[in-house]
Design goal:
single chain, about 425 residues, alpha+beta, four-stranded antiparallel beta sheet, two-stranded parallel ribbon, 9 helices, elongated
Length: about 425
């Protein structure tokens, strides 16, 4: 008896360990893992970091620039020959020349100021793009998640149909052996059994692939991924989700990116103008040379004003070109804003339609269930054919699967609508 208890305890441990190898993940957990591990989210975070570095680089243009140069040479003959008081002199045969220069820009036509504003705008754009990536990653995660839930529900439906078909097969087989039914009836049921087995094979393969897709997307191995079971409760009315689309538009990252594009083109236009304005700078320079066979040092300060006179001919066209680019960005903002509003309305229509499809599918399941019950009774009473009974079972499977698809689509459409309206 003790030996049996030990064996039983060991089997319990083995089952417990194997069962704990797979953690059941909720939708919220899958989304959290996707935001942490998905490659697109990692790249989105790197884009933000890259934009910040561009901003830091642009800020350095406010500070003085420092340059240094040195030249050493040794010629095969003097560069300068002279005769002083009857004595020949050979000069600049070898030597060293070096200088250090510090320049501080005082005015650059607004290029530095606007360049920094443009770099800051780049950081903001990268954040909005990260928000877009977050939305798309969360939506894709949810699609994969509900696909697994849907396939699991269809397997449950298939188990119900299998039970009905197997029970019918036993009854028909007994009737054939008793000589009450002909063998053709048994073959019809066998064909239906084969069809159900084929459906199971397709569902199991689809489920395996869906788990692999979700696992790869959220950064988990498929063999250690399982989904928490859920119940398909009565769906909540979509009215609670409805919002004013015009007000919601302003909070969406898509609209913000359109607005930032207009702002960026305006800044680029100012930078283009600044390229053809005078620039002012001051600086200091220290120079050293030994060209006359002795050390010489020179220090100086300077101010520099640069006016691009001839560049204005071509520059005027560049400014007009950039002005047109700004106008194009404004047109794009207006056009795409209208399209975003249309998309919101379409998604709201999809939500309402999906909700109604769920309600219709629920009624179909109730009707199909009752149809199977009645046809089973009629067949047993001999008042209906085997084909009618098999058709009623097939309709039950189809109606339950349609309800599963409609329910999961309704949940996905809700998420799409919430995201499209900035929530």
């Amino acid at each position: 008896k003790m030996r049996h208890q030990i064996i039983g305890f060991c089997l319990f441990l083995m089952v417990s360990v194997s069962g704990s190898a797979q953690q059941a993940y909720s939708l919220a957990q899958c989304k959290k893992l996707a935001l942490e591990n998905n490659a697109r989210m990692k790249n989105a975070r790197l884009e933000v970091s890259s934009a910040r570095q561009t901003k830091e680089e642009a800020f350095t243009n406010f500070f003085p620039s420092l340059s240094a140069s040195a030249l050493g040479y040794n010629a095969n003959q003097p560069l300068v020959e002279a005769n002083l008081g009857g004595m020949p002199l050979a000069l600049l045969k070898n030597g060293i020349v070096g200088d250090i220069t510090v320049t501080q820009p005082l005015f650059a036509g607004g290029q530095i100021v606007n360049g920094n504003k443009l770099a800051q705008l780049g950081v903001e754009v990268s954040r909005f793009k990260q928000e877009q990536s977050t939305k798309e990653v969360l939506l894709t995660t949810e699609v994969y998640y509900w696909q697994i839930i849907s396939l699991n529900e269809k397997l449950k439906t298939l188990a119900i149909v299998e039970q009905l078909v197997n029970s019918l097969y036993k009854d028909v087989d007994a009737a054939v052996k008793a000589g009450v039914k002909n063998r053709n009836d048994l073959l019809q049921v066998q064909l239906r059994k084969n069809s159900v087995a084929s459906d199971r094979l397709q569902l199991e393969n689809g489920l395996k692939l869906s788990r692999m897709l979700l696992g790869q997307y959220v950064g988990i191995k498929a063999d250690s991924l399982s989904i928490e079971p859920i119940s398909f409760d009565e769906p909540a009315s979509p009215e609670r989700l409805r919002t004013d689309h015009g007000a919601a538009l302003l909070s969406t990252p898509e609209y913000q990116l359109l607005a930032k594009n207009v702002e960026a083109n305006r800044l680029q236009q100012k930078i283009t103008v600044g390229k053809y304005l005078p620039t002012v700078g001051i600086g200091a320079s220290y120079m050293y040379d030994d060209l006359m066979d002795k050390d010489n040092t020179t220090a100086m300060v300077f101010a520099k004003v640069s006016v691009p006179l001839s560049d204005w001919w071509g520059g005027s066209h560049a400014i007009k070109k950039q002005k047109f680019q700004t106008m194009m960005a404004q047109n794009e903002q207006r056009n795409n804003s209208d399209l975003l509003l249309i998309q919101m309305q379409k998604l709201w229509n999809d939500v309402e339609e999906s909700y109604k499809q769920v309600k219709l599918a629920e009624e179909s399941v109730v009707t199909a269930t009752e149809n199977v019950r009645l046809n089973t009774n009629y067949y047993q009473a001999g008042t209906t054919t085997l084909s009618d009974l098999l058709d009623s079972q097939l309709l039950l499977q189809q109606s339950r699967n349609q309800h599963t698809d409609a329910y999961t689509q309704y949940l996905i459409k809700q998420t799409q609508y919430l995201q499209a309206t900035g929530r």
